[in-house]
Amino acid sequence: MNITKERAWELLKEYNKEEFHLEHAKTVSFVMEYFAKKLGFEDEAEFWGLVGLLHDIDFEMYPDEHCVKMQEILAQKGVDEKIIKAAASHGYGLTNVTIKPEHTMEKILFATDELTGLIGAAALMRPSKSTLDMELKSLKKKFKSTGFAAGCSRETIKAGAEMLGWELDYLLDETLKAMQEYEKSKL
Length: 187
Hints:
The chain has helices spanning 5-15, 19-38, 45-54, 69-76, 81-88, 104-125, 136-144, 154-164, 168-185. By secondary structure, it is an all-alpha fold.
């Protein structure tokens, strides 16, 4: 790795000003580190977190070139090709990116990017505005309601679970647990 988390955060803020996008990046970064540790990739947790932090660096400024412009930006900034490839792979089949998620980490990013948005939206609908009191049953209900958080692609989430060879419920439950841990870490 040739970039620190602090430098990645500065880069992200250079291209993203909206608090929503910055918070999404921090959430995905934490979720990625959570899965790295859970699945026995502790030694790679920082790398997974960096990929999660930088995965949408281009989305705010270049939504029509998402995952394509990101590769150019990160390459120009001297970011390691492994980080660029991994981050770009979450756009496979969704954007003009042809980099297929192959490593477990890339598949998790693909699966959880949309899902973290759905869980975040579901939390905002709760009286507590929190994931801490959310249960899988409640999340599954929101997942099935296609009108709720319609911008969060259920098909992408399902495809991600399938790529990983996981049951959808497992992906939903573990991502919810990761987001609950993230929320606790901010208290």
